Amino acid sequence: MRCHAMPDVPGRRKPTASEDFIRGLWKENPTFVQMLGMCPTMAITNSVKNALAMGLATLVVQFGSNVFVSMFRKRIPNEVRISTYILIIATFVQIVDIGTEAIVPETHRALGAFIPLIVANCLLLGRQEAFAAVNTVWRSALDGLGMGLGFTFGLTTVGTVREILGSGSWLGFRVMPASFEPWAIMNMPPGGFFAFGLVLLSFAWWKDRQKRRAALDAAITAPPLARPILEEASV
Amino acid sequence: MSATAASPRELPVMDDAVPSWRLLLTLTVAGAMAGLAVVVLYDATLPRIEGYKAGVLRAAVTEVLHAPAHADTLWLRGGALTAARPAEDEARKTERVYLGYDANGRPTGYALSVAEPGFSEQMHLLIGYDAARHELLGMKVLESKETPGIADDIQRPVFTGQFTGRRAPLAGIKSADRERAASDPSAVVMITGATISSRAVLRGINRTIEHWQPYLDAYRPEPATAPHAARADGGRN
């Protein structure tokens, strides 16, 4: 039987458990770095509550499907792997759909059609193919948890910008003065693009600033002979 | 024989090719396990989900009929409305309306369920209706998956509040003609940017009233529907 198997790369250090977990949270954040799952990012982030609920629903699906795909990775033939992964993802989406309707019906009502659409989130199948299909259950679980939390963080960040500017509140609590005129467009899908662009711009600016500072610190602390080269590099 | 002259029969076959039965078995087992998990969860949560929906329906009946003293479920059987409840299996498929009564046992209006496709999916509404005066008593959205931030305005009081006292059939007007709503008893101001959803609401209400009006006109309360015997069943029965 031909199954997916990750080739061992000689000399490459095996990532630690914490690296598997943190990767999705920051370094390979699904929303801000990989830019996956844009449909829910634009559609349901008009409030922090909806963004949190969608993020957590996706987290459960990502975690569960990662664990199951990894668990059965040696039993699933390569030829039917996509069908099987989609089936596993769809099952978890259905479980989350029924579960939220039974446990938190109001939230289920607010999320409307977006929970079933989790099945079409390319982040999920992407992680099955790239990670869960070639790694152990433990590492896949950590990856699923990290990616899910990273996605939740991404949605919540965009939701924060939109809710504050669009409604003057955060998680339903009023945070802007009464004189503040809400930006109605922030509650509409175009507002999602504006807010997302704003957040991306802030992240890019912040990362660039960090990079410049690091280069400057390196230039200052470097030995005198190396200094001119580093100063040149930091310009 | 050279390699280029080899017939398809002589082409090398991959040693690790998976037999078809194994592929089929993998998909069958995965499908069966998925099906089992979903059905078990569905069965386990169904009473809770139905209980919640029944509660929402009871609250909606109370709201659209303006807090009646009690309400009765009427079933459409044999081309007429009756208070006699069908058997369990039949009851699930039977169309029904809810009739509200005041404290003196006088009918105050009917609550009618409306289902109409909106922009995204089927919308479910409940309307309060005075069949004798052809007048709406209220409207409540029970379920809607319309676009968040735009078309979900159909659930807000600024839209739902307009229906009370409007005469059927309803006519949608643009917000620019808002003044017309004061003089036209059938006019309802649509939501700017959510025309399809607003139209769907009006279309669904008009269609539902058109469907039920003959049955409501023909219905005469039966002795069995005396106040003490009547109740809103919340849609479960």
Concise account of the structure shown:
The complex is a heterodimer of chains A (235) and B (237). Chain A is an all-alpha fold and 235 residues long.
List the topology elements.
The complex is a heterodimer of chains A (235) and B (237).
Chain A (H helix, E strand, L loop, with lengths): L16 H11 L10 H6 L4 H24 L9 H23 L1 H7 L10 H9 L6 H31 L1 E2 L2 E2 L14 H33 L5 H8 L1
Antiparallel strand pairs in A: 1-2
Chain B lengths: L19 H45 L5 E8 L2 E3 L5 H6 L2 E6 L5 E11 L4 E9 L4 E9 L13 H4 L10 E3 L6 H4 L3 E3 L5 H24 L19
Parallel strand pairs in B: 7-8
Antiparallel strand pairs in B: 1-2, 1-3, 3-4, 4-5, 5-6
Summary tags:
heterodimer, A: 235 residues, two-stranded antiparallel ribbon, 2% strand, B: 237 residues, alpha+beta, 6-stranded antiparallel β-sheet, two-stranded parallel sheet, 5 helices, disordered N terminus, disordered C terminus
Report on this structure.
The complex is a heterodimer of chains A (235) and B (237). By secondary structure, chain A is mainly alpha-helical. Chain A has a domain at 17-174. Helix content of chain A is 65%, strand content 2%. Chain A is built from nine helices and two strands. In chain A, α7 (137-167) crosses α8 (189-221) and α8 packs antiparallel against α9. With 237 residues, chain B is an alpha+beta fold. Chain B has one domain. Chain B has a six-stranded antiparallel β-sheet, sandwiched between helices. Chain B is globular, with a radius of gyration of 27 Å. The A-B interface holds A 1-2, 43-44, 46, 50, 75-80, 83-84, 87-88, 90-91, 94-95, 98-99, 101-102, 105, 109-110, 112-113, 187-189, 191 and B 16, 18, 22-23, 26-27, 30-31, 34, 37-38, 41-42, 45, 48-49, 52, 120-121, 143-150, 193.
